[in-house]
Amino acid sequence: MNENFREFLERLRQEHELTDIKQAVDIRHVATLVDQSEQALYFHNVIGYKIPVVSGIFRTQRRATLSMGCSKFPDIETRLRQGIDHPVAPRRVDSAPHKQVIRLGDDVDLFKLPIPMSSIYDGGPMITAGVVIARDPEYGFNSGIYRFLVKEKNLTGIDIVTPNNMRLFAQRALEAGRPCPISISIGTHPFEIMGAGFRAPLGVDEMGVAGGIRGAPVELAPCETIDVPCLAGAEIVLEAEILPTGWAWPEGRFGEFTRLMGGLHWNPLVRIKAITMRRDAIYYALHMPWENTWLGAPTRYTAIRAALKNAGVQVQDINVTLGGCAMWHAVISVKKQAGEGKNALLAALSVMDMKHVVVVDDDIDVFNGTDVEWAIATRVQGDRDVFVIPGARAKPLDPSLPIVPTGMVPTGAKVGIDATIGEGIPRERFERISYAYADHAKIKDYVAGKADKLPATVNASAGHVAQLAQKIYALIEKTPRYYSEIAERFADYDFQSIARAIGQLHAEEKLWQDPRGRMCIRGSAFAARPPEKP
Q: What share of the chain is helix, strand, coil (3-state, %, to 5)?
């Protein structure tokens, strides 16, 4: 799909998913207006700035789906899987549209960019949607999405408290006493943002994954001041260096994907060496938390499915829940064989920062919270089916973790709940209520005036009931039947006569039930036996 950022915005506009705001708007109002809007917003006239702002472009499931050129949300996982399995190497180009304006040295001024505030507790304007490309002498390229707190006209912080490849690159540069050069591309197509958001193994180029998602090479252009490429299709590019200051400068606070205000972080400083942009550049501000949520969820689906496949587990469905911030919680249904509930839990909990996982049978709808809770209520014994793994790597943004000294990575617990039917327990115990005649007795028909036909035989005399009892006896003598099956088989009789006939068989001590509760003949091979006394 050869579509650029601007063409994507136009597609949102055509789908009535983007609203143009052409009157003057104070930049301090941008975030709250996006939060209130059903559509993405394009602010053409931001007071004090020459550059327009767009935000909220992934803020709903539908827009996230549109961003990947898909018709339904689960297809995003397929598209991401394609990018991972069939990466397309980036293509280098000599120049790019964002080279139309180049600012170097003292002309670098971040304050001229319309970088909005977000929440009332923010530590300052945050660059939230830059695709960051870095290079390590040994491990090659890494791409990711990181946020930058604007401190001075050419100085920011970079939030890399979570253990990841970018933090490793910065740490290695710090230990070598050198800066770590990075490019920050703002206003890029969702394909590149999705690729950068995937946590690839060390040494794997995420822009190759983005190319696989796109189905064509991502074009990379050279920077002016650093030996790292940037995205040729970007609206604005910042050329920068992570300074070898270490994790020693305060950064934040900021509204996080947790839907909570994050605390103060300690991070390195970043020097901006150049700004390049289109003459009519558009600034994209990623709106927290929902844009982050809808972008991040598909990467979790893909990673969990791969882990389960490696574990040999047959997956029915996966729900990386919004309640778990599309980061920490997953509900997985499996076509279970003995022991695979636990195996599935171990595999899924190894993925990224997954914190709590519930595994259910394939008859449970993982997208129905009541269904999942019902499985936990009816299939789980805590001492057998719940386990806790302490001391696992945790995400520092988890507010339930204790505070650790600066520079230390916290550890926490992972919890698995095996809500599948336990081995040795008959599946018949979990047959759901299914109402008789639900296939053709519809309330809307009766509200509209439908009346049932009277049965052909309405006769409660003793002789009539005795005759019917003999017919029922002959039926269940051959094959046990549920009560409702008997009633349906003799539907030409009124129900009272049927009930009396069955009652007569019981009174004559001819009637019994099989282990599944069906009517049968007492003393027959089908008849249930009472459990033996201990």
A: 30, 25, 45
Domain holding 407: CATH number?
Answer: 3.40.1670.10
Residue 318 has pLDDT above 80, yes or no: yes
Same domain, 159 and 85: yes
Residue 245 lies in a domain: yes
DSSP reduced 3-state for 516: coil
Provide mean pLDDT across the span 311-321: 91
Quote the pTM value.
Answer: 0.75
Instruction: Please state, in angstroms and rounded to a whole number, the distance separating the CA atoms of residues 507 and 497.
Output: 15
Kindly write down the DSSP assignment for every residue of 32-78, as one continuous string. HHHHH-SSEEEEEEETT-SS-EEE-TTSSHHHHHHHTT-SSTHHHHH
- Compute the distance between CA of residue 395 and CA of residue 412 in angstroms, rounded to an integer: 9
Q: Quick one: which of 17, 397, 323, 322 has its CA closest to 190?
A: 17
- Domain of 488, CATH number, reads 1.10.10
Choosing from 428, 463, 493, the residue where a domain stops is 428
Beta 236-242 vs 180-186: how paired, if at all? antiparallel
- Quote the CA–CA distance of 480 and 483 in Å, as a whole number: 10
Q: How far apart are CA 314 and CA 521, in angstroms?
A: 42
Indicate the pLDDT class of residue 471, thresholds 50, 70 and 90: very high
141 occurs within a structural domain: yes
Tokens standing for residue 355: 């914190």
The pLDDT of residue 407 is 63
Q: What's residue 406's pLDDT? A: 64
Average pLDDT score over residue span 410-438: 88
Q: Mean pLDDT, the chain, as a whole number?
A: 90
Structural domain boundaries enclosing 483: 454-521
Same domain, 79 and 202: yes
- The reply to whether 129 and 254 lie within a common domain is yes
Asked whether residue 298 is domain-assigned, the answer is no
**Which contiguous run of DSSP H or E holds residue 476?**
helix 462-478
3-class secondary-structure state, position 388? strand
Choosing from 394, 428, 462, the residue where a domain stops is 428
Q: What is the mean pLDDT of residues 105-128?
A: 91
Q: What does the pLDDT read at residue 258?
A: 66
Could you tell me if residue 368 is inside a domain? yes
Q: C-alpha 282: how far from its chain's center?
A: 29
Closest CA to 151 of 240, 26, 30: 240
The residues with which 104 forms a beta bridge, in sequence order, are 274
Q: Which region holds residue 206: left if phi is over 0, alpha if psi is between -120 and 50, else beta?
A: alpha
Do residues 103 and 240 share a domain? yes
The answer to whether 363 touches 400, Cβ cutoff 8 Å, is no
Judged against a pLDDT cut of 70, whether residue 374 lies above it is answered with yes
Same domain, 83 and 153: yes
CB 243 within 8 A of CB 271: yes
3-state secondary structure of 159: coil
With a cut of 90, say whether residue 24 has pLDDT above it. yes
Same domain, 493 and 401: no
Burial (0-12, 13-18, 19+ Cβ within 10 Å), 160: buried
